[in-house]
């Protein structure tokens, strides 16, 4: 099996049309010369007697119809040169997609605008997968249109919290910017609770914070060496809440990169408050990257080191 077949872009397919996600994923596959793999998760239901009327084979038939419809659309966007495959997964949607795409180049999902109440009640597959997957996860807004009028400069935006813990996130963002021929716009935000802003923050301290953060971020970018070579980088320090600044920046970007939360404990949701706040509001596709280096086939570098006794 070739590397492109082993390490495809994976797209999660539901029952609704996902043209935005398919277009993004196909473009990503073409840039990297890899395959595109579509997955549909089929969960066994135990909802009561009425579920007996719909058999598992009926549900699998409907799932395969959804996959076939998505496959036809994906082929239009992908072309004939690259591998396109599809698969039914079994189990709860989030866990099935995470485990089934553990060795993917990235996982791509589409998210739709939901009312606040519905979002709280159901959460979203995108946030669930992004919180648990260790490979990059991209959530594409259903309203995203790559053919719409674009800004004069192609831009990838990355949000940075703590500069000296952001090497991997900056690496992912630089790779994305280079593959697209885009500018990398690095945004570092900071703010204090409202009651303290006027008491504590002076213009001088604001400037000092910005200068310090700029220097730290540029040092990390320089440490990437060849991985960031050829990429024009613009660093901005913004005195504002992170979600507000990143959502605003997404309106002028073709991709927003945000790090998942660097977890204190190795279990539970690792999405983080900023990523969760931005996920459903961004105007462009958002890539959620793990802050820890991931080796080939999705293994975390620190896990390998522990197994080796390092």
The main β sheet shows up as: 10 strands, mixed
Distance between the termini: 32 Å
Number of domains: 2
The gyration radius over C-alpha positions equals: 20 Å
Neighbour order of strands in the largest sheet: 3-2-1-4-5-10-9-6-7-8
Top CATH class of the largest domain: Alpha Beta
Instruction: Give the averaged pLDDT, no decimals.
Output: 83
Give the number of helices. 12
Measured as a percent range, the helix fraction is: 40-55%
How is this structure best described in words?
The protein is α/β, with parallel strands linked by helices and 310 residues long. It has two domains: 3-141, Rossmann fold, CATH 3.40.50.620; 155-307, 3-Layer(aba) Sandwich (Rossmann fold). The chain is 42% helix and 19% strand. It contains twelve helices and ten strands. The protein has helices at 3-6, 19-32, 56-78, 93-100, 116-122, 125-132, 167-180, 194-200, 203-223, 242-250, 273-279, 301-307, and strands spanning 9-12, 36-42, 84-90, 106-111, 137-141, 155-160, 183-190, 233-239, 255-259, 286-289. The chain has a ten-stranded mixed sheet, sandwiched between helices. β1, α2 and β2 (36-42) form a beta-alpha-beta unit. α2 (19-32) packs across α3, α4 (93-100) packs across α6 (125-132) and α10 packs parallel to α11 (273-279). Mean pLDDT is 83; it is low at 116-122 and 295-310.
């Amino acid at each position: 099996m070739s590397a492109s077949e082993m390490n495809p872009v994976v797209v999660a397919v539901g029952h609704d049309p996902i043209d935005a996600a398919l277009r993004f994923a196909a473009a990503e596959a073409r840039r990297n010369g890899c395959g595109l793999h579509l997955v549909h998760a089929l969960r066994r239901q135990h909802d009561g007697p009425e579920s007996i009327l719909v058999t598992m084979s009926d549900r699998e038939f409907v799932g395969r119809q959804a996959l076939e419809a998505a496959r036809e659309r994906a082929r239009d966007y992908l072309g004939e040169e690259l591998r396109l495959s599809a698969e039914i997964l079994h189990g709860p949607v989030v866990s099935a997609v995470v485990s089934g795409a553990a060795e993917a180049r990235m996982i791509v999902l589409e998210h739709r605008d939901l009312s606040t109440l519905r979002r709280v009640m159901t959460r979203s597959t995108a946030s669930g997968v992004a919180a648990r997957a260790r490979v990059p996860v991209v959530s594409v807004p259903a309203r995203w249109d790559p053919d719409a009028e674009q800004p004069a400069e192609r831009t990838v935006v990355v949000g940075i919290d703590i500069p000296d813990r952001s090497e991997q996130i900056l690496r992912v963002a630089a790779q994305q910017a280079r593959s697209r021929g885009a500018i990398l716009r690095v945004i570092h935000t900071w703010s204090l609770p409202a009651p303290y802003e006027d008491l504590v923050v002076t213009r001088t301290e604001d400037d000092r914070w910005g200068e310090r953060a700029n220097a730290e971020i540029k040092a990390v970018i320089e440490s990437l060496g060849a991985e960031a070579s050829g990429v024009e980088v613009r660093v901005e320090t913004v005195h504002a809440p992170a979600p507000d600044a990143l959502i605003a920046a997404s309106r002028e970007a073709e991709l927003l990169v945000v790090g998942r939360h660097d977890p204190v404990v190795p279990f539970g949701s690792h999405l983080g408050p900023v990523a969760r706040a931005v996920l459903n509001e961004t105007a462009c596709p958002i890539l959620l990257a793990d802050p820890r280096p991931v080796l080939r086939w999705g293994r975390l570098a620190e896990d390998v080191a522990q197994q080796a006794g390092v």
